[in-house]
Design a protein that fits this description.
This protein is mostly helical and 100 residues long. It contains two helices and no strands.
């Protein structure tokens, strides 16, 4: 889907009134250890994905094996995985809208 554009419109062409800022939730702070853990998991997962792609194209006979459920759980029939990138984008846009 095309990237959404942020558009800032003035009401009746006038500058908006400056209102006292609302008290908002503090921004999340990430420690160096947290960032290192995220980087480690991200890089490790990138390696797994590359190895999976290589084994699918016949380049490698060993490496990770993708698990496929032989008998799917009927309760998960309508399960839709979350698109994490889309969710983060929505959170980001909502944060911008709440701050304006």
């Amino acid at each position: 889907s095309p990237a959404q554009k942020l558009v800032f419109n003035r009401v009746n062409g006038k500058r908006p009134q400056v209102l006292p800022q609302q008290v908002s939730a503090p921004e999340e702070c990430y420690t160096l250890a947290h960032e290192e853990n995220v980087r480690f998991v991200y890089e490790a997962w990138q390696q797994v994905e590359q190895q999976l792609d290589g084994s699918r194209s016949g380049e490698s006979t060993c490496g990770p094996v993708q698990y496929v459920e032989k008998t799917p759980n009927p309760r998960l029939k309508n399960f839709v995985p979350i698109d994490l990138e889309e969710w983060w984008a929505q959170q980001f846009l909502a944060k911008i809208e709440n701050c304006s």
